[in-house]
Amino acid sequence: MQPEVDKETLPVATERPEQRALEILSALSYRTGELSPYLQEIAQGVSELIGLDWSTVTLCRNGQERVLASTLDLGEAGSQVYSLHGTLTGTVVATGCSLVVEDTFTSTEYGEAPDGYRSYLGVPLRIPTGEVLGTICSFHHQPRRFTPEQVRMAEIFAERAATAIDNYQLYQKQQEINEQLEAEIRERKEFEKALQGSEERLRQISDNIQQVLWMYAEDGKPLYISPAFQKIWQQSCAHWYENPSIWWEAIHPEDKERVQAEFKQSTEFKEEYRIVRPDGSVRIIFDQAFPIRDETGQICRIAGIAEDITERKQAQQEMLKAFASLAEVGELAAMIVHELRNPLTTVLMGLNAFKKIPLPSPARERLALSLDEAERIRNLLSEILVYAKPQALQFSALKLNEFITEILGPIRMMPSAMNRRIIFIPSPTSVPIMGDKDKLKQVFINLIDNACEAVKEGETITWSVDSAVIAQSVNIQIHNGGEPISPELLSKLTRPFYTTKTFGTGLGLAIVKRIVDAHGGELSITSSASEGTIARVRLPLSQN
């Protein structure tokens, strides 16, 4: 039998100033994808402020719990799953309310505590929907009391832990969606490359006789038809020599008048039309004709190449459907962002209203913290909206040296660029490109901003246009001599929602990459201790 304990003599945990709680809350640094260290800080903060022997953060699902963070090293036991049945934690999850047990020896109706512990404080991790995700459970070796202020302090920490776990789960779901989209985009690109390879092979059919090569004399007499005619039209070449009208007779009735009129009006044309073969199947033909002239410049022959593009047309339609599906995903993301913006605006209005009310110093600090967090969410939603939108470009002719010179002044006035030197080295010759002026400006603002943040005041950023034009494209380089980026981080920099900044959203470089890709270009980033960090943007030259 356990000895009786006089509750009047139970010790009360040493109270810490609320200011200390706010300092710990403000110091918590949560970054998407790094949940465990954050929850560990929360568990440590609860134990420190309330003076407890052991605190844990647990995740509870389907009558079971798993420890996510603990102030004590649990070893292999920390990775096990435990039943909530008959435990103090089970009571907190079942009721959804905080639970205080001053002495677990005398108050056994709430469940059992771990061996060696006599007092218990448990608070639920509740998200805005009301769902309880888990608990913060704290234990003490001796019986003790907890003041209402201490319980409320633990509940504040529980709010932050619940938000972090909920955000982490949403982040994991978003990552899964991103991986699915990236896999689908890779498949589409591979399919497109395969299609382009097919087109290249078709352009070389002069040797392989994959297209129909035909030739007429100037007076209309048939001179030559290649063997591919028999495969595509399902008519013998000999039959064509005897009766060339079988070509025209095969043209689809809806296209025949247009094609014959074009052939009669011009000796040089490109037409797309359908043919109906003897077996009733319909094929799509791309036919182009050109005149052949004699020594005097007179037209003596009319030759042409007819190509069966049925499969290519079908593939293009499939690709259009695939990209339409991706566009729908972007529209859905935009709708979600718009739906979140309205309630967030209401929250911000309410928080700003509190700024006009005289509040104690701790409350003002907490209000400022809440306003900063809400503003960060609003900025994140804005960037998600930009990322989700298809990159519809408004192309115009740009001269790269002049374009960069034009935007260099405003860029040097950015807060991050203050007290840094930005040196622009133009190409010695004019470099014409076709691009969206506003979108490319957004690309370079982001890259220069990142470069400036990587160096100290007084250091130099070099922005240059490579004078060596390779493969009808030009390279623009932005170099900084800051701390090198590790190879494992380099590969992740353009992933959505990945950031190395404390207050970053992880969408800046992802948006930059999408804009550069939409221009038919390529973004690459290299970094080393010897060369510094270089962001390269390769853009195609204008063909005009």
Q: How does this structure look, described?
A:
It contains 15 helices and 18 strands. The protein has helices at residues 18-27, 35-50, 88-95, 148-203, 205-208, 228-233, 237-242, 245-249, 253-265, 310-354, 361-388, 400-412, 437-453, 487-490, 508-518; strands at 54-61, 64-70, 81-83, 99-101, 119-126, 132-140, 212-217, 222-225, 269-276, 282-293, 299-308, 395-399, 421-425, 432-436, 460-465, 473-480, 522-528, 532-540. Strands 3-2-1-6-5-4 form a six-stranded antiparallel β-sheet. Strands 8-7-11-10-9 form a five-stranded antiparallel β-sheet, with helices on both faces. A five-stranded mixed β-sheet has the order 13-15-16-18-17. Helix 4 runs antiparallel to helix 10. The radius of gyration is 35 Å and the shape is elongated. 25% of the residues are buried.
Spatial extent as radius of gyration: 35 Å
Strand content: 15-25%
Count, helices: 15
CATH topology tier name of the largest domain: Beta-Lactamase
Tally of discrete structural domains? 4
Unreliable residue stretches: 1-17
Q: Which architecture name of the largest domain does CATH use?
A: 2-Layer Sandwich
- For the biggest β-sheet, the strand order reads 3-2-1-6-5-4
What's the oligomerization state? Answer: single chain
**Tally of DSSP β-strands:** 18
What is the typical, i.e. mean, pLDDT? 79
Helix-residue proportion: 40-55%
Structure classification: alpha+beta
The end-to-end distance, rounded to whole angstroms, is 95 Å
CATH class of the largest domain: Alpha Beta
CATH 4th-level superfamily of the largest domain = GAF domain
Report the major sheet: 6 strands, antiparallel
Shape: elongated
